[in-house]
Every structure is written in C-alpha cells, then in structure tokens.
Structure prediction request, 333 residues.
Amino acid sequence: MSSVALQSPHDALFRAAFESPQHAGELLDALLPEDMLGLIRLTSLELQSGGGRGKDLEEFRSDLLFRANIASSPGFVCFLVEHQSSRERPMPLRVLGYETRIWERHCRARPDEPLPPIVPIVIGHDPRGWNASCEFTDLVSPVMRQHELLRAVTPHFRCIVDDLSRLSDHDLMARALSAFPTLVLWALRDARTPGQILQTLDQWADALTDVANAEGGREALEQLFVYISTVAEDLALDPFRARVAQLAPAAKEAVMTIAEELRAQGLKQGLEQGLEQGLVRGQRQTLERQMTLKFGPSTDAVSARIQAANLEMLERWLERILTADTPDAVVEL
Prediction:
C-alpha cells in the first residue's frame, strides 16, 4: 500500500459525482464557451479506467480522464481538482506535465499517430478563491514574453478553471446539472468555511429531496453528508442532522447514519494507516540490515535519512542497494 493511493475526501466526493459521462458532460456544458463546446461531442465521453493514471500519473490522485471526440478526432478531456488557491508547483506547469505524460503514453502505444488534443479543466474550491495564474506564459521570465524569437520557442496555453468560490447558490442551481453533482459542488464550495454549510443549507432542500427520491439516492446522500461532517470545521452535528430532516424529510434516513458512517470510516482509516506504518517499519529494518551487510555500520547521517524516509523512498532504495557502490548512493545523500 502506498500513501499516494489514499484519496482525500474532496477527491472521492468529486469522483463519485462526475465519473458518470452524463454528469461530466453536464459540467462541460456549463463551463465551456459555446465555440469550444461545438468542438467536443459530449455524447462521446468515455471514462478511462482508473482515471487514466498509472504509476507515471500518480501525482494526480483525483483526476477524471475521458476519451472524447474533439474536432472530429480522438482526444481527451481531463478534470483536475485543486484544493488550494496556490501550490508550490503552479497549476499550468503541473497540467503541462500531466498532458506530456498522457502524450508519451500515447506515443508508446500508437507511435505512428499524431498527438491527440487534450482539454484540461481545473476545479478550484479553495474558500479563499482562485488567485493563481491560469496562463503558462505568466510563469516564465518576462524576457521570454518580450522577444518574439523567445516567445516562439515557449509553450503557450491556458487552463480552464472553475472557481467555485465565485459562484453563488443561484449560479450553481442555474447550471443544467443533475441534483447530486450540483450538491457536490455546493459541498466543495461551502463545507470548509466554518459555519457556511449551515447558512446555505436551506437553499438546497429541493435538491436533497430529489436525490433522496432517486435510485441510489440514499447512498449518494450518505457520502455527501459524511464528507460535510468530515471536513466542516466546528459543525454541530445534531443540529445539522435535525435541520436536514426538517427541510427534506426524504433525506432523513441518510443523514441520521452520519455518526455510524464516520465511525466506520475512522476505523478503516486507522487500519489502513496502521498497516502502512507497519510496512514502513519493516522496510526500514530490511534496508538497515542490508546496508550493514554490504557496507558495514551506517553513519548517523545515513541512519537519520532512513528513519525519515517514507514508503515510496524506502522501496526505491531497496532496489538501488543492489547496484550502489556507497551508502550515500543508496539514500541520495
């Protein structure tokens, strides 16, 4: 098990709502300008297994990658969920790396075919709003923008960003989305702002009722309510459950299971963390034993590096020790 494989609650909720090609198409229809929509045949969307990741794309844990007919050619549409308004690595650079790896995989599988078009959609739900650049050229030195010859050798593209913090309840409801995906966007927008989810709850009674009465609605609402209860700061659980039951009686059964679901989720998470911690300890002991057998007792610096390593690093070093000539070459010191 790798920690990379553990999804955040935001990722899991977004995937639950939008891995359906129908729901993904509805979101594209609400987001994209009309001229771009004219290029994408929404009925052709087809979810790629595992979000289209693989080992070379594990950084993008929650991505949803769809095949699609774009401008009468095979292409891709990808959704990336961004939890913060800025990151150490700017979003256009991260998206470029993601697209490059998709194209590299395409070249390995179909070396004689041209690179397919990719349309990246970034869903931002940081309560502070999106304040990072969407343009790749904003990331490069001004010198490269000022001179035509340098501009010609610099990538130029922009990300399409859906900043949920800028959308009102009316804006979200005006989108032609099904009820559950709309509720998911509402929860992503409001749940992390203290007190906000209760302030806006009354506006969503009809949507909660619609989901509760739909096929599979109870399970969908349970996931929604558990997400809200997990990430909402200082949420008074009993008043929240009571208010939901009052506003949308059809959703009462789902909301009343929150405590049990949270307990089960906590037990599962604790088990996963315990298993991973045990695996890390075992890998550390194995690596230290192999280092001693091959190089003799480790220095304090090497030992400290091993003790601080995560599971991914330990697995890589266990492979590297087979060919390394020195302890430093194993642990990247």
Q: What stands out?
A: The mean pLDDT is 84.
